[in-house]
Design brief:
6-stranded parallel β-sheet; about 15% helix; binds beta-D-galactopyranose
Length: about 800
Amino acid sequence: MAKAYNDGWYFSEQFDENWLSWKGTDLTDEALVQLLEENHFTQVRLPHTVKELPSNYCNELDYQMLSCYWRLIEAPLDWTGKEILLTFGAAAHVAEVYLNGQFLAKHANGYTAFTVDLSPALRLGQKNSLLVKLDSRETVNVPPFGKAVDYLTYGGLYRGVTLAIKERSYFEDVFVNATGDKKLHLQLKGREADDAEIQGWIGDGSDNLVAVIDKRPFVAELTLELPEVELWTLENPTLYQLHLELMKDHQKLDEHTVRFGFRSLAFTSDGFFLNGEKIKLRGLNRHQSWPYMGYAVPKAGQVLDADILKFELGCNAVRTSHYPQSHDFLNRCDEIGLLVFTEMPGWQYIGDEEWKKVALQKVREMVEQYRNHPSIFLWGVRINESPDDDNFYRETNALAHALDPSRPTGGVRNFKRSHLLEDVYTYNDFFHNGSNKGCEAKDKVTSNPQKGYLISEYNGHMFPTKSYDWERKRLEQALRHARVLNDVADEDDIAGSFGWCLFDYHTHQDFGSGDRICHHGVLDMYRNHKLAASVYAAQGCEKPVLAISSSMDIGEHPAGFLGDIYAFTNADEIRLYKNQKFVKSYVADKAYSALGKAPVLIDDIIGDLLVEEENLSPKVSEKVKKCLLAIAKYGPEALPLSLYPTMAQLIAFYGVTREKAERWFGKYVASWGEKATQWRFEAWKDGEKVAETIKEPVQKVSLEVKVDHVDLCEEDTWDMATIRIRAIDQNGNTLPYLNRSLTFKLDGQADLIGPEHAPLVGGMAGTYIKTIGQKGSAQLTISMAGAEDVQINFTCEGGKENE
Ligand code: GAL
């Protein structure tokens, strides 16, 4: 078993060649600490970022450095004759590993794991000096570097490290290819295992034995048939465990456990099929970045992102743009039934032969390290949005297919009729500009209509939207997502689509809004929902969804005209009440007829009120309403000409004077000079009210705080709680323009990540708490002027055995 090796590290923002000659052996503990301090090392725990960054207006040069991680390894004598394997989850971006001054390994590119055999340089029974020289400068000749890149590539040992003590014979790799016909094809790679035997078992998620693998000679390939197993599906993602033991002379030399699921995957010219069932993929692109910490976030943060996609946004798929991401994220996708399109690292640029060699090696590492995750349905084997390079991409395709015959390949391009060497044409379709169709037809793009076709990105930079943008802009972002989803749903032969993107992300100076942020997310960087998130939630979530696009404040709009109001909901009907009086009921907008849960257009906020309150006949009321609503939508100066005859009729035959019209407009549309107006939107489903939202003048401000978990527990690494904060009114509506400052005060056995004072942005904010290896409790107090403090209590379980 590999042990977590995440504590006891020291870090320096510099690197000095002289440090290579340090021999841990010669020094007392005190002398060692002194030496480290003199050389500006600080003690750190992994995952670690070389530099915490501010949440915006950060500088990408800050994390670019030649830095050093150092750790003492005490090697007991009973390691004699063993293989000592140290595995780094990720080292961004080029790492050299030295032990006692001896160079052991170099790994290029920060998105895959690598293992170093320490044995050749290890001094048993002594203290050993382990040193990692880490280059996080973007000048290194490895993907994604070489040209501009639209995301920050933060440096650090940002995933966990493990240490495994192995006999000379051990399992180097086990690939479980479990297919929909309930067969298990195993590929085993062993070190010095040819004369060994294997035995093992297969268990289900509750540790029940499903099958026994009788002792047999070690083989490289083995197929097992299991009659009674359940398939891995989106609704019921059943997982199994394979446990294998390597035996020699009745002695167990090694053991290996893999979690897997049985399912079949297929792309045809017609779409995507999981276990023979056609599924329209509806997903978002995810970067693995966070405020302050960059990439260095432990399991809890990774799990939360997967849960957000599945349970808060109702997605059935995610693309890990533009690199392989944490196994903690992938494990969670396996567990909850979220399909993953994962791809080799890179962005738009293909480098020289040396660069390509690294890229090809990354394809190998990606497939070998990730192929046991049942959630992965597609390998991306092209550098995102790169030009055709047939020789290079023939190699990436062949390699992925050779290492994993079970999955198709794709490769994301941003141009049409590219040379299709993959199984699926995966295309970034930025066709939609707000006033045209949501996507292009498959046959207008692909160079081979017989193969599968998938939209890997849409929207994003076509309409950057901040959480603090004005109401209509936030609405338009939501509608653009709805339009694309609708038009993709309408095209039977498009397998699905991935919106750009899940949340706002840090970027380089060449991109973003000048604040080093691409505001392309349907969530902000702290994982708070923008309006567009509700478009996704409405499609796939079980629990009631109701988001109203407007605060109903006319002053937010040019000339005071409210414009269109939409409800994003998974209910069947929206009922509107004004000051407790029923106005009207609305259903899905027909313009989105292909979408399961189309936005609901609330285009009449007068209903029958003119009949009831002004004694107009229904016929006259309809005419008056038509004019008043048109004025609200277009303004009096830009009314459609078609309305003029109606207005003339009202004046000539029904006694509608200008004064009356103005009064009615004020009362029924603008709600001006009236006592406070209350709008109540009710969502009804199957004859029952399932949700309601009230819009009225803000009377009280408070903070709503959501915490992913309060029982913090260190497993392999430090643990982290994500705290998401919204300023809300008395009815729970977000207050997007409340920009007061928040204060975070933390007491107890935990640390705050990020600043102690932060402003609300778009009425929302976030902060993070991390454990410090101690058992105990912690209390976070969040304060803001004008609102009651919010207190959250955490318990902290200290470090499990962590070398
Ligand atoms: C794409 C690119 C993404 C992101 C996006 C913004 O071209 O693949 O990484 O930059 O544009 O919309």
